[in-house]
Amino acid sequence: MGDLGSTHCCDSIAFELIGTDAFHFRDSNSRASLSLKELRLSGENCEFCAGLAKLIDYRSKQPATWADNYRNPQRRDGERAMPMEEEMKDAHVQISVHGIKEARNWSFGFEGTSHRTVLDVWVIIGGPSNFYFEMLLQRAGPGGRVPVTHKSEAEYGQDTITYEAPGGWRVGSVDDDGPRPATQVASLETALGRSRPLEVDYTMLRGWLDLCLSHEDHDLCQQDNGGIHVPGFRLVDVENMCIWDADGHAPPFATLSYVWGAEPFLRLVKDNLETLMTPGSLRNASLPLTISDAIEVCRNLQIRYIWIDSLCIIQDDESDMLATIDRMDSIYRQSVVTIVAAAGVNAHAGIPGVRPGTKTLVQQQLEVRGVPLIDSVDHRQLRSQTSYQEPEWISRTPWAQRAWTFQEALVSRRILFFTAELVYWSCRQGLLSEDTVEYFESPKTRLRLDDKFDPLEYQHIATTFSRRRLTFESDLGRAYLGTQNYLDAKWGGQMFSWGLPHGAFGSFLMWEWDFDPARRQRQGTHPIKEANGTIARVAFPTWSWMGWMEGGQLIHVFGDEPAAHSPLFYTFDRASELVEIQDGQHWRSRPKPIADLLLGECAGSGEVPPSRKTELLEADIPPELSATPFLKHRALIFYSQTAKLRYDSSAGFKATSSLNTPSGLRMTRREYPFPVMIGENFYEILEENQKDETNRENNKESLRDIKLVAVFGGHMTKPRKFRGKFRIYIWPVIETSPGVWVRASYMSTVVFQDLWNILPRKKWELISIV
């Protein structure tokens, strides 16, 4: 900072801008950088600098500062690291007024956001490779000089701001439309910081609920009168402390979303059903802390009933479980509010703030030039991010790592998130928190959460869900079912097959996982209750992203090309009826038949020969598939062109990371050789291996046949020299029984159409992939 004899860091920062709607993105008086030693020295003559230095010291010693901090390293013993006192001496501090911080609710749409101007403080300890932490300070009320004019010297130059004395705050809304005059007094943002209690303030939480219920813009948050249609629907009666049979009658109730964990706890089973339905039985029961705390929250919010999966589903009755899990979306959607225990790693962890001593972080209040400031408990609640993205204030919690909890929040209309140190309210239209005054911003955009099918929304939902973990890998289908049912209803009858939306089926069939050498097919089965009441246990299909063990993130880099071409796909519904997938019906365009691309004039000249048909009849289905329910329910059937090629089974290699996977998988090839993935290994398809006479001469006993199926085609968009050229997505497949195939791996190969056209032994045939 130079000479600190007459200059303090507070002299170089325009604190008056904090909490106002003044624009200042390039203002030269909005930031400072100095060492912690310099800040402490400055504090000898400045109350604010002294207070900020004390706040940094306090926060650096708090476990909450370092918990789940993505900038925080780990010591060799695996324990979370915290800086030593000696390390803090060399800390560096970066201070700036930040005007594009965003508060976003837990949703995957454009609503529920507001922008804040805050003081951003980064503390860097030991250099870029060691420790970091961030703090945000919000304005806590009016005060200080008022920004009056804002002038930019050049289009991308430095900005100039002048001020007037306190008392000149503009009365108005941050939602005012139209250009602002060159000279205009700024207004305070509606949301200001405040001190949050260490124990839950139920009056505040009840006020949030009432605010959402009465807010005129919150039509998306209101009850949809769909009702609860779950046989044997049960609730926990908070007043009588017992399980209550609510079948046919569902009064207002809350729901609980939490992490079960591996430690045992009381659950509803056939043997204790009658006992737990006796009034008072739960008072004497040994309930885990998270469940007893959730009951206490309901009691104080004056909500008499709560639905808790472990106590409301008979855990050793598969019929009861399937009937309820199939309707999980309606249960959480119809609840008044969902209580999310986000901080707990298991059901015994409890809910922070319900009992004394479970929250520890004490906020600090500072003032500079008459501007009152208070530190935000969680700096991640104000974070610039894109739409359709899970906000950081929840994404790093134990709750957000589990697959089962995803659907529970997605379908809920109102949520109380209890993180380690803060309670958030998130509804379909806004976000509130304990350390920020109530504020719901009025919607400014036409895009809403109840809009019709949106591929981008689905993509982010699927990728977020794919990062979450399961204790039992076979639970994936059930954990995603509520999400699928919700999107089906939300998008007006958008059907799904094994997680893939029919509205853009061909495109999203081109899913990819991050490469992982340990990835394998998902084990276990998914139970499907058929129309006649029987339960079919169905393995996960190899053509869906659900069919492969997760790890890393599900990515979508293919399948979005213009001039898309795909086969006419068919699946079976629960009644074992053949269903034609209406690909692209609810999207911007429908793909053209892949036959037009692969067969050219032959496909469009009059009647198509039987060898080149595209429409499927029941009589065309392979007999084994038709007669076997556990195969039928996972089958994807379509006509397409195939090529049978030979590869050298002795020349494969197993990649150890994504860095040494063949580039030809993701880049298009115009000529031989090109790679395919079969099982765990990659193989090069060589032109000489396709010639019978060469193979006889060389007597290659290691040659094997592999069938390649064309599944999708579209125009290339880059590089520019290839723009407009068609590329073909192909799957290697292996026949497991007559007419029934599985994917040979989870990775596609993409080639130019020119290369596909010259491949040998091609034919048009029916493909049934399971």
TrEMBL record:
<dbReference type="InterPro" id="IPR010730">
    <property type="entry name" value="HET"/>
</dbReference>
<protein>
    <recommendedName>
        <fullName>Heterokaryon incompatibility domain-containing protein</fullName>
    </recommendedName>
</protein>
<feature type="domain" description="Heterokaryon incompatibility">
    <location>
        <begin position="253"/>
        <end position="408"/>
    </location>
</feature>
<dbReference type="Pfam" id="PF06985">
    <property type="entry name" value="HET"/>
</dbReference>
